Amino acid sequence: MTSTTDEQRSVASQRPRARAPSVSFVSLGCPKALVDSERIITQLRAEGYELARDHADADLAIVNTCGFLDSAQAESLSAIGAALADNGKVIVTGCMGAEPEKITGAYPNVFAVTGPQQFESVLAAVHRAAPPQHDPYSDLVPPQGVKLTPRHYAYLKISEGCNNRCTFCIIPRLRGDLTSRPAADVLREAERLVAAGVRELLVISQDTSAYGVDLKYAASGWRGRSVPAKFSELARALGELGVWVRLHYVYPYPHVDEVIALMAEGKVLPYLDVPFQHASPAVLKRMRRPAAQEETLSRVRRWRKECANLTIRSTFIVGFPGETDADFSLLLDWLREAELDRVGCFRYEPVAGAAANDLALTVPRAVKEERYQRLMRAQREISAKRLRSKIGSRERVIIDEVAPARGSSPLTAKGRTKGDAPQIDGMVFIQSRRPLRVGEIATVKIERADAYDLHGSIVGY
């Protein structure tokens, strides 16, 4: 057995090297798809591929698609077309890849099409399109992998797929049934992210509170103890890492109440992202969603009593097939009663293959638009009221952006409170007399509020 000497390495380093192949990448859809993109890019970097900012500068392009709604599919097809125009060698993956005929029907000259989570197929296609030129003496991949988010926060995906069969959703058909990761695997990834400088972990999956059901909550070893693959136990363990832990896509199963206690203790952020979708029992029944909304209101009150600073965000669908004026009025009344902090709203779109399309009469587009506007006006009033209550308070804020200094003017920055997730919730606009760093967590005195955002000044670290 021989070893490579320093002299041999020196000679090898002087030989001309072939240019490493480069890949451009477009990632569409939800944070769960973004994590898939990060996994693909991490492996490509490990194999020596470079990343190109523009399709025209790359040897090939990859488009990770979203197929949840018709509008998302249209956006994906547009991105594929743009990549083909600029590059010509395009690999398509992601949710839309589960129905490849929709892609090849529009663009028969794509190089390859793979479905969601088919990482090996994507890499095999890349190898065919542009064989790797890996340098075994360099390792350009950090321990936490390549991330597409800023350095100070990262998405942590704990499971794939979903066991629910909501009539408006085709995700189980695209991504399969629930498949949870062992708790120790999740926690070790979280540790690597924290060691790399991540200050906020955003826990995601299709149905976060169902985590571990498929594993029958089997325990795995972490830090010398066994941690069950259970939603509340995983949240408790993540809370030991000393960073913000934010929980997304949490269905309101009974055991969610256990996590509210962790929020009250400060173990995880007092933030709950619950996709309620509607309030009318008739609509919820057609959606195949939990329909006891009076009970849900009671739970919301109970959650806020147990954790006074809890922020609740949710999403709703208006114009679902068969939605009547009475159904929509019930939704508005429920929303005003619940006073959710953050709300997103979707106009129902018929998705090919979704059972909802055949359940009832379609709501006219103009009616859907009118209901959407009314719901968002109502929510603006609720949001403005809840944010005004924070004026005069001191909030811990994580800094996302810092503007360059201009003369003697105070520094300006943008950040988020514990009640604000990146990209989807509000911002805090900050003035500061001292330098700020992206990723630091500082105390801000709230001086002003509008419908969705807060304004204040730095008063402490």
Provide structural commentary.
The protein is α/β, with parallel strands linked by helices and 461 residues long. It folds into three domains: 20-129, Rossmann fold; 153-388, tm_1862 like domain (pyruvate-formate lyase- activating enzyme, Alpha-Beta Horseshoe), CATH 3.80.30.20; 394-460, Beta Barrel (OB fold (Dihydrolipoamide Acetyltransferase, E2P)), CATH 2.40.50.140. It contains 13 helices and 20 strands. Helix 8 (231-238) runs parallel beside helix 9 (256-264) and helix 12 runs parallel beside helix 13 (365-388). The termini are far apart. The model is unreliable at 1-17 (pLDDT under 50).
In a nutshell, what does this entry contain?
The protein is of the alpha/beta class and 461 residues long. 33% of the residues lie in helices and 22% in strands. It has 13 helices and 20 strands.
CATH class of the largest domain: Alpha Beta
Strand order of the largest sheet: 2-1-3-4-5
CATH topology of the largest domain: pyruvate-formate lyase- activating enzyme
Structural class: alpha/beta
CATH superfamily of the largest domain: tm_1862 like domain
Number of strands: 20
Provide mean pLDDT, rounded.
87
Give the overall shape. globular
CATH architecture classification name of the largest domain: Alpha-Beta Horseshoe
Q: What's the tally of helices? A: 13
Q: Describe the biggest sheet?
A: 5 strands, parallel
Note the beta-strand portion: 15-25%
Low-confidence stretches: 1-17
What number of structural domains do the residues give? 3
Radius of gyration: 24 Å
